[in-house]
Amino acid sequence: MKKENLRTPWGPAEKESWFKEQTIKRSYNDEVVTKIMKLKETYDVSQYGALSLNTQKYPVFLIKSKNFDPAKKTVLITGGVHGYETSGVHGALLFMEKYAAGYTDTFNFICTPCVSPWGYETINRWNNLAIDPNRSFYANSPAEECSLFLKAIADQKTPIFVHFDLHETTDTDNSVFRPALAARDGKEEKFSEIPDGFYVVGDTSNPQKGFQKAVIDEVRKVTHIAPADEEGNLIGVKMEDDGVVYYDMKKLFLCGGFSDAEYSTTTEVYPDSPKVTAENCNLAQVAAVRGGLNYVKSRI
């Protein structure tokens, strides 16, 4: 991309042009909603809203423990904040389907498996307004996906004790997203190598290093952990522990920082690695949740 093209940030016309270039590549209803509906016998499944872009096509759902017990700690699992990050969605659903029951003696569960359904269908990081949802978790958010989610969680009137936000880092982060971001904002984006392997992002204000390590140790049984680059970094940030970096979650308005959870982690799977399959990526997300929950359970 030529530098002269980066002088003027996008206005409404450019954003509308970008939106019209996006195409539907897979079915949210067939691949996600049908799986959510199958969980109705086990959980309370409710629709907490729909994207105004197409309310019939893009409903959003909350999966919640039946017989919700206020005496238990509450675990939140979010997937599909970036809709294109497939294993975040299907890893969340797989955990709820096959593994959550093993922890219900200790925890209540709330799961929003696909926060960004339009992004899921178009395999997109942004929403239809060219907004990154995972920089938009704040009051009166311009990202409808975030405002619907925040209201739904607030309506539960229960503190979140553990939060797993399930993500991926893909090759398209560099080949598609960064060039688009540079064009949208009118400024160059610093390049950083995509890590080959799994890693997590903790919160600088509440690192919970033992918790992050427990997540990594469990995932290591399923797939490989990302090594640091030549400068000791992952995604341009210093790697503090094996497979662990930290962000200021609240300053960046990330999903992982909205709740003040005692324990929180954002997972990052690398689905483009030749060492993994789609199933392996889903299982890595499940392992991350299980590793974190086993750690927390041992301490309460």
TrEMBL record:
Belongs to the peptidase M14 family. Signal peptide: none annotated. Pfam families: AstE_AspA_cat (PF24827). Gene3D superfamilies: Zn peptidases. One of its GO terms (molecular function) is metallocarboxypeptidase activity. Keywords: Hydrolase, Metal-binding, Zinc. Residues 24-296 form the Peptidase M14 domain. One of its GO terms (biological process) is proteolysis. This is Peptidase. The keyword Zinc applies. The keyword RNA-binding does not apply. Its cofactor is Zn(2+). The active site is at E268 (proton donor/acceptor).
